[in-house]
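lol ok so funny story. i was supposed to be doing the assay writeup but got distracted and ended up predicting the structure for this chain instead. priorities right. anyway since i did it might as well share w the group, maybe its usefull for someone
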Amino acid sequence: MIDIPWDFTVIPSYFPRFYGAAWLTLQITVFGILLGLVLGLITALMRISNSKIIQGPALFYIWIIRGTPLLLQLFVIYFGLVEFVDIPRLTSAVIGLGVHNGAYMAEIFRGAIESIDRGQKEAAYSLGMTKAKAMRRIILPQAFKRSVPPLGNQFIIALKDSSLASAVSVRELLLTARQIGSSTMMMMEMFVVVGVYYLLMTSVLTVLVSKVEKRLRVSDRRS
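and the output, tada:
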């Protein structure tokens, strides 16, 4: 008989000790996603611009972010920018996650915008709409609907990536597990607790994104 060195019966009793860390993880994720959405949309609009001067910074931003790991970006923000401005640990984690996700969301938005039939743009122009007005009223609403599935995947990735905030001493789920595990000598048990928390949160997020997709499909049929 295999002698298992872990005591998983203690897991339920330790669950409440992670409530604060789970809440902090959600804050990092939500604010990081919101920042990423703003940066992503702005960058996507810059990418599809006809001006090379406007396209250039967007391309450079996407190239840098997609070509380097998130952990390195967090270190650059936390240890680099702190020389110029005083950035709290939580804020640096949110900025890092937002900037990182913004590059990927930019490509999602760009692909969705470019997938809209060109005839709709020309029809909007023929009705007297400016390019900005056509983009706001005709193109972006349709592009957003097409972006929901890949954005949902990116949101889930962002939730899991928030664990890297532990590298800059943000006491989210992973760092809390390591601290409690080292003090109780039950590291594996604490990692299991964290795994359950992440599974619960990603499952809820998956269900929410699925519901949004279904509602958008229903609205498309009605229209």
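The chain has one domain: 17-49+56-217. The two ends are 64 Å apart (CA to CA).
back to the writeup now i swear
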